[in-house]
Write a structure and sequence with these properties.
Largest sheet: 5 strands, mixed
Helix content: 10-25%
Shape: elongated
Number of strands: 32
Structural class: alpha+beta
Strand content: 25-35%
Length: 514
């Protein structure tokens, strides 16, 4: 008599009366195997009777049968292995994707804009085999790769063209604004943004033109108020245009003042990149000896403007008309309210030697932080220049040392600028070019300590080249333009601060037949 309780009672924690029959059979078989050590019929498999085979081969692992615990365990094990494999594969894919992303980011990240080398493919030790149809007359590089250029007129191309490069001067793209004639580039703002004046050849109308993408697209704004154009009305004076950012800028114009019934200088301000301008003041400080000429709407006034931030800026220039004029002193004014009001600022005239206030010209300061900047003053008597430095945002200026300059007495010097004006790329490195009118001629003069000491050298170019422009964007990277006989201007580049120069075999697109 079988006194065993039903499986559902003995394994109440596993079974109920509603369980799958296959599970009930499995539990019954396991119960029998545990109690009698007898293999249930359903789990039994035929055994090979050849002993030699059994001895020679390891036991065969038989696949578990459906509906058994072994099948469930095997299924779970397979799932576990598959999950592990999937996790490993996912990890490999993820790591690979991250590594690929880092590679792309770092391989395509632009190098330091002032140290990226030009492609060796466009450098040539010998002149190019062809004559470029357009001649580079001047350049304004904004970094080691991005920059602008203007062509010389000549041959069939009488119109000056605006050029842009994005590879350090190897290739130049003609980006002149559409069907208009380029009258004047007012300001190179960045490597992709420039502001210019253009003229409609048919009507003679003048427009402001602006590009922010390297010359691919231009925006035009009529400059004559009577024709519904943007302000400012008047003639833009000298180099009196400055931009703090591509959107925020100021300029000085010589315009007619109805209230005073005469011309005068007025300051305008833009916050949208020159699309619109608002008058800030019509009482701009002017050189005393130019007042009468300004009132008649006369020629360009030798004043410049530069802003450090939205509130603080300077007007620089000279009261001199000629070197022998009895001027009224150095022209240096500062504003702290965005140009609404201006106050005269005095420079210490002791810079290794005593400068004559009546014969000193100031140039716009260059700032490299909110506090650190440099300002140059050049003097007719004695002839030379001094760099002033500030570390308090222009509140005070201290002279460094006097750099004497000698001129060729047989060549007339610019009456508004007694000496070349140094340009700086940081608070330490600056340069100036002493051309043929100076003695000795054709010398590159550099400083590595903010104007305290200067070194002169003659660029090592092939013989007979006459250099007419030099520019640096870092202490190591620079360019120069040089002429040789009747050949097109040659463009050279240095990567070692001017010790060696390599000619760039530059090209244009689109190609214009000369």
């Amino acid at each position: 008599m079988n006194n065993k309780q039903p499986l559902s009672d003995r394994y109440a924690d596993l079974l109920t009366s509603q369980n799958d029959p296959a599970l009930l059979d499995l539990v019954q078989d396991l119960d029998m195997l545990y109690a009698s050590h007898t293999i249930p019929t359903r789990l039994a498999r035929p055994v090979e009777h050849t002993l030699n085979v059994q001895a020679a081969q390891p036991p065969v692992s038989l696949p578990p049968q459906p509906g058994t615990l072994a099948s469930f365990a095997t299924h779970r094990s397979r799932l576990s292995r598959l999950n592990t494999l999937a996790a490993v594969l996912f990890t490999v894919i993820l790591v690979g994707a991250l590594l690929g992303t880092f590679y792309l980011v770092y391989s395509t990240r632009p190098a330091n804009p002032n140290t990226a080398p030009v492609s060796p493919a466009c450098e040539a030790a010998t002149p190019p085999a062809f004559t470029p149809p357009l001649l580079v007359g001047s350049i304004q590089m904004m970094s080691a790769t991005e920059g602008w250029g203007l062509t010389q007129s000549g041959g069939k191309n009488q119109q000056v063209e605006l050029l842009h490069t994005s590879d350090g001067g190897c290739h130049w793209k003609i980006v002149s604004p559409g069907f208009y004639s380029l009258t004047r580039v007012i300001r190179y703002i960045s490597g992709t943004t420039v502001w210019a004046i253009v003229t409609d050849s048919a009507s003679g109308d003048t427009f402001f033109a602006r590009t922010a993408d390297g010359g691919q697209m231009w925006s035009f704004y009529p400059s004559a108020p009577a024709k519904g154009g943007a302000n400012p009305p008047g003639k833009i004076e000298g180099t009196s245009v400055t931009f703090l950012t591509p959107e925020i800028g100021w300029l000085i114009v010589n315009q007619y003042n109805k209230a005073l019934a005469r011309y005068g200088l007025a300051l305008y301000h833009t916050t949208d990149g020159g699309i619109t301008w608002q008058e800030v003041t019509n009482h701009v400080p002017v050189p005393a000896l130019w007042a009468a000429n300004i009132e008649l709407g006369g020629a360009d006034v030798p004043v410049s403007i530069r802003f450090l931030n939205a509130s603080t800026g300077w007007i620089t220039g000279t009261d001199l008309i000629t070197a022998s004029s009895n001027g009224k002193g150095t022209l240096l004014f500062v504003t702290h309210d965005g140009g609404v009001s201006w106050q005269k600022q005095e420079l210490p005239l002791h810079c290794g030697t005593t400068l004559n206030a009546a014969e000193t010209v100031t140039y716009p300061p260059q700032f490299f932080s909110e506090r650190d900047g440099l300002l140059t003053a050049s003097s007719w008597s004695p002839l030379g220049l001094c760099v002033y430095v500030t570390h308090d945002g222009g509140t005070t200026w201290q002279g460094t040392s006097f750099l004497p300059v000698a001129t060729n007495k047989n060549i007339q010097v610019d009456r508004f600028s007694p000496t070349p004006v140094p340009q700086f790329v940081d608070t330490q490195f600056g340069w100036l070019w002493e051309g043929s009118i100076y003695q000795p001629p054709d010398m590159l003069v550099t400083t590595h300590d903010g104007g305290l000491h200067w070194t002169s050298s003659h660029p090592s170019l092939p013989a007979a080249y006459g250099i007419f422009q030099v520019q640096f964007v870092s202490p190591s990277v620079g360019w120069l333009l040089a002429n040789k006989d009747a050949a097109p201007p040659a463009l050279f580049r240095t990567l070692d601060g001017g010790k060696t120069w390599t000619r760039i075999n530059y090209s244009y697109s689109p190609y214009i037949v000369g």
